[in-house]
Design brief:
Length: 76
């Protein structure tokens, strides 16, 4: 049992020592907070095509909803 108590005390001391060494109070310079500009990658063209396809799909769904509503309004 004493070994377990010593281990707990050792762990608590280690945690306190690590917490005392933290640098949480120092403000980060603003230059480091800004994200670097995005670089062009190999998949950029594919991502653009995917986004365009999603936009076209959304337009088609909206057009279908309008067509369905027009048919419904005409009593069909």
């Amino acid at each position: 049992m004493p070994e377990y108590a010593m281990f707990r005390i050792l762990v608590i001391c280690a945690i306190c020592a690590l917490a005392a060494c933290s640098d949480a109070g120092t403000p980060v310079p603003e230059a480091e907070t800004e994200a670097p500009p995005a670089r062009k990658t190999v998949v950029d063209d594919q991502l653009q095509a995917l986004e365009k396809a999603k936009a076209v799909g959304q337009q088609l769904e909206e057009e279908k909803a309008r067509t369905d509503q027009a048919i419904e309004d005409q009593g069909g």
